[in-house]
Each structure stands twice: as structure tokens, then as C-alpha cells.
């Protein structure tokens, strides 16, 4: 349909909104903005919770909204609204202009109109009909929680599913005009095991993007076995003794440490704040030569992948660290403007109410040449971290991570399970100590909370050895 | 559409769908915030948000729910219809009803209402605050995390039985997190937060002073030896721990099997007789107070621990019915109604107690670790197991001097911690999450780098 045939006064998903978007962008530029961006979103979400042998919660939600961002020199003003009418969007532009105290109107035409519409959603419009129904989801979750019931030490069993279907329109005064549909599905299994005074937890999360059938083919039996075994292994575990020791971090979710401790410090938002020790280290060695690290948004089906970022740029594969040398930062539009680092297709946000920021996507340490046994055999006394819990990084770069499932290493062999361990350190001190990388790279989905809200990401790594790190315990 | 119109629209749509029983919660907000970077405006933000959550009961009395930001006539119809469909999957195992207290009169608290000061004033105030903080000490090189915001919002609860409650309020928040650097030393960081009903209620100077003092006080740092120490928890850090383990008092968590308590735990001795803990959402110092919860139940003061023993649990409508008691005003509207505390108040109970009253954070000259602030709660707390291992900011007091601790974690078990309280200081301090005195605990494990 030709855009000139549409004279709508409200954004309509599935229709051409070019004229209306151009009018709004033009309005912002004429009022004096250097740059105007509109991000419009329509969501259709659902979550289901199974506890023991019952569905205890089904929560659908839907909504729509717009985020409008105006740049003037290096400052930006951001306004979000649920009002998608022309009047509402114009009012938001005016509000952003006023916030930035822009009074000098542009007299010349600085906006050439939108480019040809890049519609990444064309092959995705059927997803809404392909995703599993609530009934299907409920059946599978109940089968999952049933599979977790393997002995009477398991006192609670939970299975949770959530689906986020997001339709977006992105338009900006540099001509960017794109539409996309994103689908993220995630399922988590959790148990608590108990015996007398002993208690343990087991949990795993699985997730995908852009794969409507993924949940149907998810092997819930295998997942349940994994969660059950983890809880049983940890049930009678002793608390770990604190101290400095060599550590082997398992593949998959072990990559959360790189994500939190180093990845965030390579986002341009950290350069803007002056809170990364790597700001002036481009092309310098910041890690052991065995470390190559990548951030990309293109792996098919991975939780952090997308066809286009939230600023209308196709994501790229960024080699952040090559053989220990810092090669690139993760950058968005504001990052490029304020730090000079080129955009990497990493402008991301939780939803329309957040301005996009430079955020990681699928971030992992590349595989090395060693087997897991090689790494273990190199340690006489240490800790094997099979499953990591959450973690955080402080304002000065110190990180800490809970070890959900850990084992002592004695003379190259895994021995007693231990609980209560926390890994503590600083990225710039720990990165040079990653001396061995395994050949078994695997990825795991997760959620990352930061300046632009909670976004879907993938973390990953092969098994890696850290020569020495502080382990918190009792 | 205002809240009365929404109620009418829902009522009409319910009639159309033959839905006899429904309730809803809605919130409407306008938020304005600014951030600065070395005197320059960085990001200025405004948002207008509306969220509506509708529950419906079907003929089998099963509940379905939907949440939406589309509060148009068509959006409301769609939401009600979706909730009706979702009710087919309602929980047959645990019924939900209207709160029996949803129409109880509420004691209206006199809430100060403020008008927006506007983005320009927010920006001017924050710029000035940043400059003053930077000028307060030569080692403070930046204020990487800062913000000043004001919010204006309305919350509504209504149901098909005629209950209708709403309240409006305003709130402003200032946070300043400074970073100090000295040559050949690691950067150190700390900060301060202030909350008020409006920007004019915030003591900006006090926030600057606290952020500066806290940051500078960490410049002289040293690693700590891994060992067991006598600990003094600041009011803020003790409240953090209590909130992290509030599942001990949470009836929902007990029913879900993720609490350290059980149905019969009322009366269980957890701590010294000197310890009282209340949940007091309506406390006059609680800027974020709400007069009713997600189910319309009035908020009230509730004693959780009385003289060291568990006195009561916090409840929603359904947990209260299962426990054969009344809802306590702690419910969050959802498909599965959540229960959470409002504002914790910790105090020393009346009477003579076996406490080591010589332990006072301002003049005790023996060795102890002062925990100013606990971090990474989401990562380091295992509430269902009772264990914690948390990084913290604090100092080692030794031989009359105090040295900031470079990087360390404190680990333990909440029941052990509560049982090993050796002193509760007399003076309470108001924080953003509640009120507490300084609390002393013996023999907790600290892991450091020394």
C-alpha cells in the first residue's frame, strides 16, 4: 500500500505509517533538534507457572507505547508515552525539545525523509499463530514438574514459562525506517530438596529467540534430570573454606562472570561515566593471550539475537578481545556520539519506556584447545564451579558471584560438593589469570538488568581456568 | 479516562461478557528525571505511564487475569475478555476472593502533595549538587551515578462488589554516587540517597555531605584477613538483611515451601528478647507509604517479632483465609497474589536484657567490623536455605583507628545471626527502607584479600 493512501492520525501496527512518522520527525527537526528518533512498540506477552502438580498462575498482558528521543549536540531528551496518536507523539516531541531548552529553530530543511522501509517482520507475522497455546504450555510444564518428583527429598517443584512477542517500528531523522517482530520464550525449572536440617536448591533456565516451536521440542525430561541431580549433589554439601585458590569455571552459564565482570566495562555507557578501567586500553593487552571474547547479535535462535537493534541498525559480530588484546567496545548511537566508538548494532532497551543504551547481546569467550580434564589436572587444590548463581559488579569494577553448585578439586579430581562459595575479584586483575580455555564452548540464556532495563542476553564460554581468585565462604 | 470512567467501562464490558465478579488495580504516573555529567545535562527523561490489571471470576469461581497499558475502551474490553479466557486456567487448588476488608474505612493519612518543579529546575539543582560534591574533596573526580527525579501518581483499586479506593501522591528522589581516585590506589566509590514528597522537601546539602563523607572515608583502605569477627551492622545494612529474609514472616512463602518458617512457627524464638520487628507501611517517615494494598486491604502496623519470638505473618486475602486470620495489607495483585513487606521498623524492646551495652559504634574501642552497606543481595542470599554470602562496604575498627575494607564478603546463616545478636543500640535511624538502630552480632565470617 502506498504511504500517500494512508492519512491516519494514529500509529497502526501492520500498516504503513510513513507519512505520520515523517511529519513527527520533521516537526522535531524544525523545532531545533539535531536528531529525532521514534521507537514504537506493541506487545503480547504471557507467563505460566506450574507448582507441584498444578497450574497456579496464568498471566497474559498486552500494551503499546512510544519512546521519543531528541539529541541536541551531545545532550539527549527522552519522553515515553502510551498515547500513539499524532497529537500525543507531537506533544512528546515538544516536551523533549522543551526539556533540552532548545529555542533556536532550524530554518533549513535538515530531514530528507525516511529511507525505504526495511521490514524484518515479513517472515515473522505467522509466529503469533505458531507459538504454543496456554493449554499446550500448561501440559508441558506439568509434565516437567512431574519429572522433577524423583524422590521424597524434593519438597518444592516449579516450572515457569514466559513468552514475549514484541512488534516494533523504528524511525529516525537520519532516514532509518524499520519494523520487526521479536519473539522470546524462556522456561525455568526449580526445586528445593530437604532432609532433616539440610536444604539445597536446583535451578536451570532455557530460552530462545525467534523460534516459535522451540518450547514444543524442549527436552523437559533431560532438563528435569539435570535440576534434580544438581539439588541432590548439593543437599549434604559442606560450606566451602574461604581463601585464594585456582578455579575451573564450567562452560555455558559460567560465562556470566565474563559478562558481568568484563563485558559491562566494554559498553560505551561505562566510558561515558568514566567507570571502566579499559577506557584507554584499545589495542592493549587486558587479558591472558588465551582469551578471545566476542559479542554478537546474529546467532540464529540465541536469546540475545535480533534482526535489527532498537535504534534500527543490523547487529554485527564484534570481537571484543582477540588473544588478550582489547579490540572493540560495544556501542550505541549515544555512545558513538559521546565517545567516538562506532555503533555495533547494540542499542537495546527493555521496552518503549527506556532510551536505548549500549548493551551486550550474545557474549562469550571463544573456545580454546584444552579438554575439561586438562584444566582439572593442572590443579592440585582448587574449586570447580559447575553452576553459577547471580552476581554483580560494583561502581569501581569489583565483582562477586555466587556459586550454585561447586566441588573441591584435589589432585586433578573432583571430590566433595561445597556450598556457600562466592567468587570475588576485579576484571582487570582476573582477566590476565584466565590461563586455559577448554574446547567445549556452550551458550546459556539469561536476563541482564542495566541502564536501559532488563534485556535478553546469552552468556557463554568453554570451561576456563582462573589461576587464582578470592573465594568467599565460611 | 479517569478511574471512575475505567470502573464504568469495566462494568459495561463485564455485563456484555456476562462476567459477574471482577476487580482491578490501576496506576497512572508522570515521571521526570535528569542526569548530569560534569556540569552538562546528560539525559533528561519524562514518561507518562498507565497500567491496568483486571481479574475476573468465572462461573466455577476460578480467577483469570490480564495486564495492559492500553486503557482505551477497546483496550479494556480486550483485557476483560483475555482475563475471562485465562480464568479457564485458574488455580483450582487455592481459591481467591475479594478481601473482606476492601470496603473497610481507611484512616486517611495527611499526605503532602507537591506540584512539579519542572525539568529545568531539576537540572539546575542537580548541576549545583554535582559541582558541590566535586568541589568537596580533591580526590572526588566524578559523580558517575547521579539523578534527580520527581513522580506524580495515582493508584486505584475497585471491584464489582462496590469497593473503590484511590490515592494520589508525589515523590522525589535524589541520588549522588561519587568516585574518588588517588594516584597508585584503587578508585573508591560511595554515595547517598534522599527521598521526599517533592524536590523542595529533599535536603540536598545533607545528601552532598553524606556522599562526600562516605566516599572520602573509604580512601584509606586495606584488605582484611579472612576470619570470624564481631560485627556492627549499620541500620541500613541490618534492614537489608531482614528484608532479604522476610520470607520468614511471609505466609505466601510458607505455603510455597520456600520459607524457613512453617504454619506452626508463631511463637518460635528467633532472637534475643531485646529484639522487636514491625512492618509499618503507614509510618510517618515512610515517604512511599500506600494506604491500601493490591487487593484493597488497608495498610496497617503489624508486629512480626515480639521480644525475639515470631508474633505474626504478613498475608494476602487467600493466605489469611488458609491461616484462619485476617489479611494484613501486604498483597500485590496478580494471577498468583504475591505478599511482601512494606517498611520494616526494628527496635529494642522494653525491659532489662542480657545485652553487651558497652558495644556502641561511636565509642567502642575494641576490634570489630562495621558493615555500612551490603551489596548484591539478589546474588548472595539463599532465602529458602537461610544462608548469605554478601560483599559489603565497611571498616575495620582496631586499636582506636578505622580503616576502610578493600574488598570482602560477610557470610553466615540468618538464624545464627539473629541468635547471636549481642547488642541493640538505643538510637534508631531512619533510612529509605525502614528504621533500625545499630545491631551487633558476634562471630560472623568475613572473607578478605589479606
Number of helices of chain A: 11
Distance between the termini of chain B: 62 Å
The SSE string of chain B, one letter per element, is HEEEHHEEEHEEHHEEEHEEEEHEEEEHEE
Give average pLDDT of chain B, whole number: 94
Shape of chain B: globular
End-to-end gap of chain A: 68 Å
Oligomer: heterodimer
From the alpha-carbon coordinates, what is the Rg of chain B to the nearest angstrom?
Answer: 24 Å
**Arrangement of strands in the largest sheet of chain B:** 3-2-1-4-5-6
**Rounded mean pLDDT score of chain A:** 93
Largest interface: A-B, 73 and 71 residues
Largest sheet of chain B: 6 strands, antiparallel
Q: Are there runs of chain B of 5+ residues with pLDDT below 50, and where?
A: none
Q: How big a fraction of the residues of chain B is strand?
A: 35-45%
Helix content of chain B: 10-25%
Please identify the structural class of chain A as seen in this structure.
alpha+beta
Number of helices of chain B: 9
Q: What would you call the structural class of chain B?
A: alpha+beta
Estimated share of beta-strand residues of chain A:
35-45%
